[in-house]
C-alpha cells in the first residue's frame, strides 16, 4: 500500500507574517481549552512550537514520513503577504526552497507552486516554477483577499490546463486576519464550471462546508477533495468523522478523495502516524454500522492521488 500525504506546508522563520501565526495559535489555544474555558497564552504557545514546526529543507518532514509510513508528500508554501504584510522572505524564495526540497528528496516530495494571483509578476514566476523548477501543481489560498472566480485568477487556470497540472484551493475557515468568505465552495464551483477539464482539489473537503462541497463535486466530475486538517474533527468525535467520510465515499467514490495532513501545523493536534492509523486501521466500535473496504482505504490513502498526479 502506497501512502501519500496530498497536503502539507513547508514553513520557516520569516515565511509567514506573525499576525497570522498569532491568529492560528489563538484559535488552537481556544480549542485546547474549550472544555473549561482556559486559554493558553498564544504568543508563548507560538514561541514553544516554532522550533518544532520550522523546516525549510524537508529533512524533518521526511523523518516524520518515515515514522508514519508515508511514502510521498505534496508540499507548498503559503502566500499571505498582500493581506498581512511582508513576512520577511519573498514568496519567490519560498517557492524556490520548496522546489529545492523536492529535488533533495525526489522520490519522497512533490512540489506545488503557491502564489497570490494578484501579484503583478506572479504568472511569469509560475511559468518559471513549472518549466525550470519542476513544480507539479498550483496552490491558491483565497482567504488573503480574492475569490477563486476572480478573473485575475483565470490566466493561472489556463496555464494549469496547458501544463496538465491540478490546482488546489483552500476551502473553509481560516484564522484572523484572513477571511473565510473568500474561500466558500460556491466560488470554486464557478471555476469548475468555466474550466471543466481542469483538475481541481478542494482542500479540507471545504470543512465545515463539506455538504456543500459534496454537492458541487457530484455535479462537477473535475472536482476532487483532500481531507487534510480533519484530525481536529476526528479527535472531537471519531464516529462523526467516519460517518462523514462514508457519506463522501458513497457520494463520489474513493478515486476523488485524498489523504492529507495539513502539516506541520495540524500535526500538533495529531501526529501523522496516528492519523495514518485512523484511516488504515479504523476503530469503528463507536459506529458499528459503518465500514470501509481494504480497497477503499488503499485508494484514498495513496492510489487516487498517484493516479491524478501520474505517479509510478
Give me the secondary-structure topology.
Blueprint (H helix, E strand, L loop, with lengths): L3 E6 L8 H15 L9 H12 L5 H10 L3 E5 L4 H4 L6 H14 L4 E3 L1 E2 L7 H10 L6 E3 L13 H10 L3 E4 L14 H10 L5 E4 L6 H10 L3 E4 L4 H6 L1 H15 L4 E2 L13 H9 L13 H15 L4
Helix pairs in contact: 1-2, 3-12, 6-7
Tell me about this structure:
- This protein is of the alpha/beta class.
- The chain has a single domain, classed as TIM Barrel.
- The chain has helices at 18-32, 42-53, 59-68, 81-84, 91-104, 122-131, 154-163, 185-194, 210-219, 231-236, 238-252, 272-280, 294-308; strands at residues 4-9, 72-76, 109-111, 113-114, 138-140, 167-170, 200-203, 223-226, 257-258.
- The strands form two sheets. It has a six-stranded parallel sheet with strand order 4-5-6-7-8-9. A three-stranded parallel sheet has the order 1-2-3.
Amino acid at each position: 500500500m502506497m501512502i501519500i500525504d496530498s497536503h502539507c506546508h513547508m514553513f520557516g522563520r520569516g515565511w509567514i507574517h506573525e499576525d497570522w501565526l498569532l491568529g492560528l495559535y489563538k484559535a488552537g489555544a481556544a480549542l485546547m481549552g474549550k472544555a473549561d474555558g482556559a486559554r493558553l497564552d498564544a504568543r508563548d504557545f507560538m514561541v514553544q512550537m516554532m522550533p518544532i514546526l520550522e523546516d525549510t529543507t524537508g529533512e524533518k518532514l521526511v523523518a516524520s514520513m518515515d515514522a508514519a509510513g508515508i511514502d510521498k508528500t505534496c508540499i507548498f508554501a503559503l502566500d499571505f503577504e498582500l493581506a498581512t504584510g511582508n513576512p520577511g522572505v519573498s514568496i519567490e524564495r519560498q517557492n524556490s526552497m520548496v522546489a529545492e526540497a523536492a529535488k533533495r528528496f525526489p522520490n519522497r516530495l512533490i512540489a506545488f507552486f503557491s502564489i497570490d494571483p494578484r501579484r503583478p509578476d506572479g504568472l511569469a514566476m509560475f511559468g518559471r516554477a513549472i518549466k525550470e523548477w519542476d513544480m507539479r501543481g498550483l496552490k491558491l489560498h483565497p482567504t488573503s483577499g480574492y475569490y477563486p472566480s476572480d478573473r485575475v485568477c483565470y490566466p493561472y487556470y489556463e496555464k494549469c490546463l496547458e501544463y496538465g497540472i491540478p490546482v488546489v484551493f483552500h476551502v473553509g475557515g481560516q484564522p484572523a486576519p484572513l477571511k473565510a468568505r473568500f474561500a466558500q465552495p460556491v466560488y470554486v464551483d464557478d471555476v469548475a464550471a468555466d474550466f471543466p477539464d481542469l483538475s481541481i482539489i478542494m482542500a479540507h473537503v471545504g470543512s465545515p462546508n463539506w455538504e456543500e462541497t459534496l454537492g458541487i463535486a457530484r455535479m462537477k466530475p473535475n472536482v476532487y477533495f483532500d481531507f487534510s486538517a480533519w484530525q481536529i474533527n476526528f479527535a472531537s468525535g471519531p464516529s462523526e468523522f467516519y460517518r462523514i467520510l462514508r457519506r463522501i465515499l458513497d457520494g463520489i467514490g474513493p478515486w476523488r478523495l485524498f489523504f492529507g495532513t495539513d502539516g506541520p501545523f495540524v500535526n500538533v493536534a495529531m501526529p501523522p502516524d496516528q492519523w495514518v492509523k485512523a484511516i488504515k486501521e479504523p476503530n469503528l466500535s463507536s459506529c458499528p454500522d459503518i465500514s470501509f473496504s481494504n480497497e477503499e482505504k488503499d485508494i484514498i490513502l495513496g492510489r487516487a492521488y498517484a493516479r491524478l498526479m501520474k505517479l509510478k
